[in-house]
């Protein structure tokens, strides 16, 4: 008796920070309820995971920082530049990049850096709307196709196949012809043309998840199909779609800026990345910075979004 | 083999019909009034009577389903309707534009294939780890660069700073170079990504070990054994890639002021010229379908499993049941 007591006493006292593996069912239950009661633990786990991603992929960290800067400039452009994006100082027109004007000035003396900073709001707004439309419509269609199956699946997926056969830029151009010009219409057109790709990925994930035992168990314990769909199938199949969303964000920025470059989006005095490059075209021989620098910002943003998507994809695969 | 081709042809016709239907739905059935679009983008003071006249002229006063089948019948006869802004048949407009676009698209595709495949092969062949990593980091960069920006940079460097190539127009072979490079960048980067990924997986296959064990050299293994199999997934994407190339001409031809399909599309969208836009969408679907048919004909040359009638999707090493039972005495 005393021997056992001594052995038990030797075990280190359990603390809240204890990371040892819960070996019995009751331990696991205790762990789980402690995690529920103390959500900061899982938040710290998330932080640790983020730190691991950051150290393992320094490129992804840089990409995340760049995206954060761009987002910040969209919400609070005044933090980055105190100058006016629409009114210029005519005396300062066509100046090359300098300490006073980081990106130089344009033909009416407006500071290009200020215009790029203020332009990020329009471009990002359009890209976010486009991704949201593509994501919501696409995942709903994919969810239905994968979950219901049979003819619903056939109809939805055949339509998706056809939509994929038409190049997405041409599809958005056709949509813009019907909807009319403007930033919002460009965003809707870009979003709708990405629906098919999202639906396809969502469907394949749903089919993978649906055959899982836990879905069968959820049905067997008397849940309605809508609850099974939204509580069990959706959360388990959304991962790859979110990875795709990061990728689509980059593609949407490319598409939105290309369409406004062509003149279907924001109209000139309003700063928008694509139309900034487009207006710079007229002064290419004399002012290289008017096209080169806004374009470089677009390229860096798309590159960062793609890099983040790849890092998320790697992490997703690891945890699965 | 004949059944395979017949099935593919049928599928192609199906895709064309569906693409036509989608473009009809988008352009005529979306909320929005085709008649006021037809009246012109800046016609704000059109009277209702004038709108009715336009509807009657273009047959827009009929039920949607009647319009659809009427247009489909015209399409079967090779008639895509007439342009609103110029009044010319859409088939003529597109027909004239194919030539100049084909020049830059074909050159661009060739450049994309050479550089994309070359990069993928070099990146997987090299024993120099850092070099391989560097080469593999290039395609994501190529995918992220906006085509219009790249085109403008090319103009800046090779037309203004060092005047080697003309900045605009379609005169002479030198005018093809810069547009073709612009088209080749995203396509080549995609090819490089696809092919390098599939080469890496193929080189880990057991049959590569067998080839090593039989004493095949590195060059032979890479080119004769691995590349042939690795090219299959990349080839499947050919239709999409050529579609991407065609869509790329909209930006490229606008930047370089060249005539062609892209310019036709850009100005048709600008003038909201519905029949021309629809014609371009149908044309893109035709190109997609033709590219896929071509791939379907190349497939059996690369993959003997198709020649004997097996699906290319059957996993390696698994014989379909029908053949097993057929082989039984």
Please give a structural write-up.
The complex is a heterodimer of chains A (320) and B (329). With 320 residues, chain A is an all-alpha fold. Chain A has a domain at 115-320: MetI-like (MetI-like fold). Helices cover 72% and strands 0% of the residues of chain A. Chain A contains 14 helices and no strands. Chain A has helices at residues 2-10, 25-37, 40-56, 58-75, 112-148, 150-165, 168-179, 183-193, 195-210, 213-220, 225-237, 239-261, 273-280, 289-319. The longest helix of chain A has 37 residues, at 112-148. The radius of gyration of chain A is 26 Å and the shape is globular. The two termini of chain A are 46 Å apart. Mean pLDDT of chain A is 79; it is low at 1-21. With 329 residues, chain B is mainly alpha-helical. Chain B has one domain: MetI-like fold (Orthogonal Bundle), CATH 1.10.3720.10. Helices cover 76% and strands 0% of the residues of chain B. Chain B has 15 helices and no strands. The chains are: A mainly alpha (320), B mainly alpha (329). Chains A and B meet through helix 6, helix 7, helix 12, helix 13 and helix 14 of A and helix 1, helix 6, helix 7, helix 11 and helix 12 of B.
């Amino acid at each position: 008796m005393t021997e056992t007591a001594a052995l038990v006493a030797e075990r280190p006292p359990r603390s809240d920070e204890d990371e040892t593996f819960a070996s019995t069912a009751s331990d696991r239950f205790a762990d789980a309820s402690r995690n529920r009661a103390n959500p900061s633990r899982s938040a710290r786990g998330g932080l640790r995971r983020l730190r691991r991603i950051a150290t393992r992929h320094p490129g992804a960290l840089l990409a995340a920082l760049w995206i954060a800067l761009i987002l910040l400039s969209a919400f609070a452009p005044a933090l980055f530049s105190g100058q006016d994006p629409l009114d210029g100082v005519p005396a300062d027109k066509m100046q090359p990049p300098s300490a006073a004007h980081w990106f130089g000035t344009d033909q009416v003396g407006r500071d290009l850096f200020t215009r790029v900073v203020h332009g990020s709001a329009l471009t990002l707004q359009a890209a976010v709307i486009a991704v949201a439309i593509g994501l919501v419509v696409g995942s709903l269609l994919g969810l239905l196709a994968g979950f219901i199956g049979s003819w619903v699946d056939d109809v939805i997926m055949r339509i998706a196949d056809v939509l994929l056969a038409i190049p997405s830029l041409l599809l958005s151009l056709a949509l813009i012809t019907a909807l009319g010009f403007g930033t919002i219409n460009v965003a809707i057109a870009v979003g709708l043309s990405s629906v098919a790709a999202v639906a396809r990925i969502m469907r394949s994930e749903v089919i993978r998840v649906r055959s899982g035992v836990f879905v069968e168990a959820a049905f067997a314990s008397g849940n309605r199909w809508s609850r099974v769909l939204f509580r069990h199938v959706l959360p388990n199949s959304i991962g790859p779609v979110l990875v795709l969303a990061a990728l689509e964000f980059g593609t949407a920025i490319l598409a939105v800026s290309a369409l406004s470059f062509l003149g279907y989006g924001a109209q000139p005095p309003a700063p928008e990345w694509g139309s900034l490059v487009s207006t710079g075209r007229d002064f290419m021989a004399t002012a290289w910075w008017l096209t080169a620098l806004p374009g470089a910002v677009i390229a860096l943003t798309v590159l960062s979004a793609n890099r983040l998507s790849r890092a998320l994809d790697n992490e997703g695969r690891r945890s699965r | 083999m004949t059944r395979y081709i017949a099935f593919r042809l049928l599928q192609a016709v199906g895709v064309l019909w569906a693409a036509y239907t989608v473009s009809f739905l988008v352009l005529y059935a979306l909320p929005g009034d085709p008649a006021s679009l037809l009246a012109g983008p800046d016609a704000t003071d059109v009277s209702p009577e004038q709108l009715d006249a336009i509807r009657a002229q273009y047959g827009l006063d009929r039920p949607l389903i009647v319009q659809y089948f009427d247009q489909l019948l015209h399409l079967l006869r090779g008639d895509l309707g007439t342009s609103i802004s110029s009044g010319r048949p859409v088939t003529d407009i597109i027909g004239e534009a194919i030539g100049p676009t084909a020049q830059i698209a074909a050159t661009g595709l060739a450049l994309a294939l050479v550089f994309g495949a070359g990069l993928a092969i070099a990146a997987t062949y090299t024993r120099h780890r850092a070099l391989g990593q560097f080469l593999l980091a290039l395609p994501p960069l190529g995918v992220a660069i906006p085509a219009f920006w790249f085109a403008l940079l090319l103009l800046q460097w090779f037309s203004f700073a060092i005047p080697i190539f003309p900045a605009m127009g379609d005169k002479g072979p030198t005018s093809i170079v810069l547009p073709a490079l612009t088209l080749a960048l995203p396509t080549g980067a995609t090819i490089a990504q696809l092919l390098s990924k599939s080469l890496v997986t193929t080189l880990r296959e057991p049959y590569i070990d067998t080839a090593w064990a039989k004493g095949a050299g590195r060059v032979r293994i890479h080119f004769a054994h691995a590349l042939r199999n690795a090219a299959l997934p990349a080839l499947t994407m050919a239709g999409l890639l050529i579609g991407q190339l065609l869509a790329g001409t909209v930006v490229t031809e606008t930047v370089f002021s060249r005539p062609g399909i892209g310019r036709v599309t850009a100005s048709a969208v600008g003038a909201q010229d519905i029949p021309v836009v629809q014609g371009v969408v149908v044309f893109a679907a035709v190109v997609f379908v033709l590219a896929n048919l071509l791939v379907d004909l190349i497939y059996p040359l690369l993959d003997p499993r198709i020649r004997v009638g097996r699906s290319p999707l059957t996993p390696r090493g698994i014989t379909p049941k029908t053949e097993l039972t057929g082989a039984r005495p």
